[in-house]
Amino acid sequence: MHSHRQGTSLLHLDASASGRGDSVTRRLTARYADIWRGLHGPAGYRYRDLAAQPVPLVSPAFVSLGIRVERHGTVPLPKVAELAEGPAEEHEWALTLPLITELRAAGTVLMGVPMYNFSVPASLKAWIDRVTFPGAFLDDGTGDRLLRRTKVVVVTARGGCYAPGTPREDFDFQTPYLRAYFTDLGVAPGNLHFVHAEMTRAADVPALARFTPLAADSLAAARTAVSDLAGERAGRTPR
After folding, report:
1. How confident is the model at residue 137 (pLDDT cuts 50, 70, 90)?
2. 93 near 157, Cβ under 8 Å?
3. What distance in Å separates the CA atoms of residue 109 and residue 103, rounded to the nearest whole number?
4. What confidence tens digit (pLDDT) does each residue in 79-126 have?
5. Assigned fold of 4-231
6. Is the pLDDT of residue 238 over 70?
């Protein structure tokens, strides 16, 4: 997997329920992906539309398999199937392993995450719950965190404004949640990047109309930030 860590693999996830014509996050992540493919070529690019093709919610069989694996300590991924008991657990692992493999292989993970009700879309949460399998991102031999050098770019869109210092700052359960999740999973804090487009509903909601200039400035800044991040070398080594 060494070559992936040099930036030749991009896992692109979109979670917006809106189509590209209406979705700010889809347009911004597409901009990133276009720049990235221009630099690295298409071979290492992998795309998942979590809204159009939802990841199945975890089931009791997923939970029972996970508990059994935890009791064995860190289990190499190829050996997890040996611990599955019955067709339901085997099915759950067959759904889960490809998603974990994709994430482990990615030098960069790009995520389009609109704010839904102050948090993340259910489609993204379903993916998170499934890939977060016991020991899946730890080295079998050393216990080291496999995602330490992975670059994660989270592109968000918020209908209002939740930036630091604004009245609704404390309503943002999107950024703190994803920051806590990915750092706990092993991503180095310096490799985790957030790009926010604020006030994206200003043109639609009459009560927000006065914030239209702010929305335009925020979107322009987000486009610039996305372009700059896409041009960086992925998978930077944390210091």
Report:
1. very high
2. no
3. 8
4. 999 999 999 999 999 999 999 999 999 999 999 999 999 999 999 999
5. Rossmann fold (3.40.50)
6. no
Buried b (16+ CB within 10 A) or exposed e, 94-126: eebbebbebbbbbbbbbbbbbbbeebbbbbbbb
Q: Report how far residue 36's alpha carbon sits from residue 100's, in angstroms, rounded to the nearest whole number.
A: 22
Task: Name residue 101's amino acid.
Answer: T
Locus of tokens 């539309």: 49
Paired tokens of 102: 């994709």
DSSP-derived secondary structure letter, 206: G
- In angstroms, rounded to a whole number, what is the distance separating the alpha carbons of residues 207 and 201? 10
Q: Quick one: pLDDT band at residue 149, thresholds 50, 70, 90?
A: very high
b/e string for 135-159 if b means 16 or more Cβ within 10 A? bbbbeeeeeebbbbbbbbbbbbbbb
Q: What are phi and psi of 22, to 5 degrees?
A: -105, -15
Q: Are 156 and 115 in contact (CB under 8 A)?
A: yes
Q: Residue 219 pLDDT > 80, yes or no?
A: yes
